[in-house]
Amino acid sequence: MLTSDQACDRAADIVSRAKTAGADAADAVFAADASLDVSVRLGLLEDVGRSESEELGLRVFVGRRSASVSTTDLSADALATLVDRAVAMAREAPEDRWAGLAPADRLMHGAPPLLDLDDREEADPASLKAMALEAEDAARGVAGVTNSEGAGASASRSVWALATSHGFTGSFSATAYSVSASVLAGDVARGMARDYAHHATRHRRHLDPPADIGRLAGERVVARVNPGRAPSGALPVVFDPRIAASLVGHLSGAIAGQSIARRTSFLLDALGQRVFAQGVTIRDDPHRPHGLRSRPFDGEGLPVSPVALVEDGMLETWLLDSASARQLGLEPTGHAARGIGGSPGVSPSNLYMEAGAIPPATLIEDIATGIYVTELIGQGVNPVTGDYSRGAAGFLIERGALTTPVAEFTIAGNLRDMFLNLTPANDLAFRYGTNAPTLRIEGMMVAGG
Predict the structure, then answer these.
(1) CATH of domain 4-222
(2) What is the pLDDT of residues 6-27, one digit of tens each?
(3) Alpha carbons within 13 A on the beta-carbon side of 98
(4) Distance CA 84, CA 102 (A)
(5) DSSP E strands: which ranges in 165-262?
(6) Helix/strand/coil (H, E, C) string of 266-307?
(7) Are 336 and 345 contacting, i.e. CB atoms less than 8 angstroms apart?
(8) Terminal CA-to-CA distance of the chain, rounded, Å?
(9) Residue ranges of domains in the chain
């Protein structure tokens, strides 16, 4: 695979070609990836896969007109054709007064932060197979597990580079490792249940032991066998950390610059107002060492830094790329996210809700009847109104304790009300790109099956 410096050279070269071909401005992204995946089932090797890719994306501007193209063919002839096509397309595109590169005076300069995203290790199929087998063996060893959907282990390394025609060139490399297991429990008479466990990290040494991952998958599925019906009515609902993070994700979508500029967000007029309960703080930290979404700069070459999106319940900022910032008359916030094709969008990095002050057991000990949710089903969230309705599964809470499993019920509310009636527990753990502790929300509507 190319080095970070070589990736920078590839991106900078295509930008230079675009300027020579008549573009007024341009930026380019180069991405290379190599990955190895191994899967097993019932103790036998099922598949070994290896993939390698190199892609180049170019965006050009002719005045306020722009066009984007991408390719996996990096030969000299193909790149020459790509540049000519992009410039010709831009000349025919409609004008967009908000389009353009990031402000030159805001670009990141100097040494990037040290994020330690690449552990420089090389994985091999044999070691990944051993990890997958260990995870599946542990999952199948849990009493009550009746079948396996398999286990897997993977390793990858990627290099990403960005170059612009107005003074920025930067790149970084990252590794990623994961182990997962998925198993079944129950029978035809009682109903089959399925659950899983998964862990992903930047450094291999930070992975949980495969046996722990498998054992957790087994314990989760056995607990879900023979579910009952959930009660109906307005009840306290407690979200397991696995799915609590989805609520934080709904916040980031609602404060994205494009949603605000288009007036399609349920938080449209909420900047500077209370949107969460007092004491709730939500942060975005692109500088987290080994973070799954850490990055030294954003998708337009702007510096990034930790920021509170919500501080003590108050909404502090939008997430803005340059185009949405211009449209709103504001400054970009360093949250531009760039794929290979198209214009930048916005995305947080390592997004998380800070831990609260009380343990999960204390969070539920005063609930006479409620629901503990471990799985959400469907996509019933309206980003314009905030209306929320999701299928769910989990456990009944009775007299302050988790009791029987329940499934095939619906939870509903409105995200503005849910945010204001939310209480976080103290069990925050950084396992995903977006993280949250156990969350309790008062008065959600539950419709039992």
Answers:
(1) 3.30.2290.10
(2) 999 999 999 999 999 999 999 9
(3) 19
(4) 23
(5) 169-187, 191-201, 233-239
(6) CCCCCCCCECCCCCCCEEECCCCCCCCCCCCECCCCCECCCE
(7) yes
(8) 53
(9) 4-222, 227-449
